Structure formats: C-alpha cells, structure tokens
Amino acid sequence: MVINLILVAAILAAVAVLAGKRWRQRQRRETRTGASIYNPIAVSRFDEIDAEIALRRCWVCEGAVKESGETSRNVGERRFRIVRLICNDCDRDDVVFFEVTAAFH
Fold first, then answer.
1. What is the SS3 assignment for the chain?
2. Which of 22, 1, 37 is nearest to 92 (CA)?
3. Calpha distance 76→85 (Å, rounded)
4. pTM of the model
5. Closest C-alpha among 48, 57, 55 to residue 29
6. Which pLDDT score, from 0 to 100, does residue 76 have?
7. How many CB atoms lie within 10 A of CB 94?
8. Nearest-CA neighbor of 92 among 32, 37, 27, 25?
9. In this structure, what are the phi and psi dihedrals at residue 66, rounded to the nearest 5 degrees?
10. How many CB atoms lie within 10 A of CB 96?
11. Sorting pLDDT into bands at 50, 70 and 90, what band is 29?
C-alpha cells in the first residue's frame, strides 16, 4: 500500500515537472519579440529581416533555424511580413512577425 502511494506520488511529480517545462517553453515562445502580430519586430529595410532570421534560434532546443516560407499581411495602414521557420535539429516550426510599414515610405 505504501509503495503504491510512493509510486503515484512519483508519477504525479514527474507529470508536474513536465507540465511546468512545457508551460515555461510556451511562455518564452509567446513573449519573444516577433512572436505575434501584436508584438512584431519593426524593420525599415527588408534586408533587416534576413539579418534577424540569421540570429534567430529555436525556442525549444536553441538549434539553428531555416526559413521555410513567408507571406504578407496588411492590417489597416500597417504592413507585416510573416516568416515561417523550421528548426534544423528538432523540426519544430515557428512564425516570426515583422512590421515593414516603414520600408514602404
């Protein structure tokens, strides 16, 4: 009986640790600059996007990422470039939002 309780407690502790790790990873991903259209990286030239992508690391494993596509989006007078990235190590995908309105003026 006591052994069962110890095993259940160990399993619950392991699940709690994994859930906490996942939550911290998600928070880190969502609060990074460029993680959403509400918190984009502002650029005044399109080559700044390439420079930022070159510095970017995977939000999960910190591995190098490569661009796998991009698209544009307009919201009112604001213009955005949305770049999809894939990690070379863990194959996680990510999206980075850039505000490119200044590049058109």
1. CHHHHHHHHHHHHHHHHHHHHHHHHHHHHHHCCCCCCCCCEECCCCHHHHHHHHHCECCCCCCEEEEEEEEEEEECCEEEEEEEEEECCCCCEEEEEEECHHHHC
2. 22
3. 26
4. 0.71
5. 57
6. 92
7. 20
8. 25
9. -130, 150
10. 23
11. low
